[in-house]
Amino acid sequence: MLTNSEVYVHNCADSKTRLQILMRAVTFLLVFFGLLIFHSACVQQKSTDKEIPAHLLNKFPTKSFAYPVGEKDFVTEKNDWWDSWYNAQDFGENRHLGEDWNKTTGGNTDCGEPVYAAADGQITFAKDAGAGWGNVIIIQHSASDGTKIQSLYGHLETIAQIEGAVKRREQIGTIGGANGRYPCHLHFEIRWTDCPVWNETGNGYADEKHGWIDPSEFINQTSGDTIIWQ
Fold first, then answer.
1. What is the pTM of this model?
2. Considering just the CA atoms, what is the radius of gyration of the chain in Å?
């Protein structure tokens, strides 16, 4: 039979064990909810990045925009079997103001591949923009009500046309690596008139993305397709 002191020690040990279990449970819940809040914030930020400004929605006709790479006018962003292209660095990722398009075969296998105008428009900029950019083309696209957006094509190996009108999916250049500065890829942006570097190159990265829109999201929303591959 236990003495009073032994019962006291035993009860204290039980209380300590229960307290430790309780503290572990509280710690687990705090970590779990902390991660949940962080994940929700990231998802919300990503969702916000992909929102198209309301005044741009439904301004351009269905299928008026297409992807600037690939044999067909639509490619998927994933590195998968569906086509030969993927989005290697998404809009908003690492403060990125555009998308970086690469071939799924990797390395510099996309060097010299055709680059196409995303939509009908007028070339407003076409030249070597210097270190970090290489050859760049900017095309201005106008809706029937006067709404304007611009598409930018960076790091080109060659420029096929320096001025005038271009048609949707007309070849405007070839993929390069900014005169050897980077592995070959296409840096592709879409901007609207609030862009602080309208008709200029800018630097491709920024904390503030106001004036830029997610290229794939915009093209997908103007595609008219009921199924959107992402």
1. 0.77
2. 26
